[in-house]
Every structure is written in structure tokens, then in C-alpha cells.
Amino acid sequence: MSLPACLRLPSLALLLVLASCGKPEVSTAPAAAAPDPNTVLLGENLQKIVRTGLVGSADVSDSLRVAGQVGLDENHVAKIGATVTGRVIDVKATVGQQVRSGQTLAVLNSTELGAAQLAYKKARAQAQLNERNVERARQLFAADVIGSAELQRRESELDVARAEQQAAADQLRVLGVSLDDMQALHAQGSINSISPVVATISGTVIERKVTQGQVVQPSDALFSIADLSRVWVVAEVPEQQAAKVRVGQSVEIEIPALAARRIAKLNYVADTVDPQTRTITVRSELDNRDRSLKPAMLATFLIESGPVAQLVVPVGAVVRENDADYVFVEVSAGRFKLLETKLAAARGGMRPVVSGLQNGQKIVVEGAFHMNNERKRKELE
Prior knowledge:
Layout: H1 11-20, E1 39-41, H2 44-47, E2 51-54, E3 56-72, E4 77-81, E5 86-91, E6 98-99, E7 104-109, H3 111-142, H4 148-174, H5 179-188, E8 194-198, E9 203-208, E10 215-216, E11 221-226, E12 230-238, E13 250-255, E14 260-269, E15 279-287, E16 298-314, E17 318-321, E18 324-332, E19 335-343, E20 350-355, E21 362-366, H6 368-380
Antiparallel strand pairs: 1-19, 2-21, 3-12, 3-16, 4-11, 5-7, 5-10, 6-9, 7-8, 9-11, 12-15, 13-14, 13-16, 14-15, 16-20, 17-18, 18-19, 19-20
Helix pairs in contact: 3-4
């Protein structure tokens, strides 16, 4: 029996050949690459429900959202106090009451006012006496009974008396005595130590710090009155966003407590930065004739800046997964890959592109949800 050809070899070579005989041949060709799980082929079924388009630019207004609160219109707020030192004998106004300008809020009994009236009466009487003395001196001077020096002395005394009377009258006006009250003081001659505390503006009493029997001074604020028909809404804008706000800019104000939104304009933007908070103050005015807005209510400012051209994608093109945004981008004819992108908040049905996409790229603009479902199905298979 003859040996196979592979066995007719030298001994060393024979051993090597025998080791290789009977073993299957191993292919050295590279294995086929696994399909990308994030890639989806736009088949016939998906073409019926998916629409594609190109990434493009559009004018987008940047939106700034800052917290604020409702406040009083400080141009129509008044702190009401007494004009004299005295004891409160009657309180006529309460918190929440609507009052008119000139209305009496409280009544005081003041010895200071009585003393000022007495001083005025004395000064007026002295001035009247000096007027009669001057008139008599002029007659005597004309009759050559007294000299010019005596007449001048009496005229000088009259000037001093009139100045003292004027000073006493000014003091009464400082203490809140009107011209009508001074005329009544002339007519009646009696001293009145009663002094009213009156409202200086019309509005709502929002604070009362006085009770009957209390001794008060002119430095004490007894009542606070505010006109609530208009209110301020104030917010603090970070200094990094200061360039986005300007006077006259239209803003949208959300009032969470009322589930309402108001459109207004910025009528004040601070010229300085608060060194503690590194913010600038902005303010709007709102009509409040229905009294629905209450001071200290929380509010949110939505401030729209001027439109700027930006890359955008439709909201329907975005897939949200694992707290990230994705878009299907075409990588070859009819084949799309799920690509992570960074997008800004939606504005008018569009999402501005921050990074991850380029102008002119073909993407799925409608039906991305169905594309993602197809991707997940194939990934499970």
C-alpha cells in the first residue's frame, strides 16, 4: 500500500505536515461590521409618515425669564404724620379704608398748638399797638411836637412787631393751621388746641400705627396711604443679561397666583448694578383698577430681545431621551442616524441650534417619533 504524498517527506517536515493534516482551514477574511443601532433606513412604510428637510436659519427673538414681584407705585404712596406734638383723642381711619385727600384720619389735642396760637395773638396785638403809635407819632411830628428821631424809633418798632407777627403766622402754618383757621382765630379770639391729621392723597389706607391716647410727634408716621389703581412690577436682571433689556421694551408678565398674563412695557431700567446681588432693577407699570393685583405677589418677567438669525429645527424633529435632545440626520441616501444635539428652548414651534448641526444638513423634520420607534424595534431584534 502506498503512502499519501503528504507523508513522503523528511522526518521534520513530515511531523509538521502530520500536525496540519486533518485540521479545517481558518478563514482570514474580516468579519462583517455590525449594523449601527442608531441608524434607520427610511423605508417605504416610513416614507408615508415621515417628512425630511434641511437645517436652516430663521429670525429668533431671545427670551429672558426673571423673577419679580408686584409692588406699590411709589409715586402715589404717602406717609401721613401729625404736624404737632400731641395726644390722640380720636382715630377715624382703619386699614383698607378708602379715603379722599383732605379727609381727617385722626384728631390730636396739642398744647404746642395752643402755645403757638397764643404767641401769634400776642404778636398780632403788639403789631396793632405799634401801628397806632406810629400813626400818633406822625400827627405829633406834623404838629412839631416830636422830632424825626422819635418818629423813626416808633416806625422801627412797628417793623419789628410786624416781622414777629409774620414769624408767628408762619409757625402756625407749619403746625398745620390753614388760612381759614387763622381767620377764625382773628374773629373768635379763642385758642383751639385741637389738630386734625389729614390725608394728603386719595387712596387706600394700607398701614395704621396709632391708637387712641397715644402721644405722637411730627416725626412719627401714623398712616400709609397708597393709590392701588396702578402698581409696579419689579424684577432683578443678572448683569450678564443687562444688554438684553431697555426702556420701552415689550414684556410679558406672569402672575402665578392669578394664573394670568399681562403685556406691558419696561418703563425703567436701572443705570447701576447692585454690588450685593450683581443685578439691575427693571420695572413695569400695570393697571389695577379691579384691585386683582396685590402688592408682594410673585411675578415672572418674560423679556423678548430683538430678533437674531439663528439655525433652527422644528419641534417635531427633536427626540428627547435620557435628558438629551436628538435629531435624525441623513448619513447616506435614505439612511438616517440619531445624532445628539444641543438645542435652546422652543420659540414659536422652533428650537434654536446651539451645537451639533450645520446649515444645509438633511434631517427628519416631521415624524421623528416614528423613526425612533423603528430604531428601537431593530435594536431589540
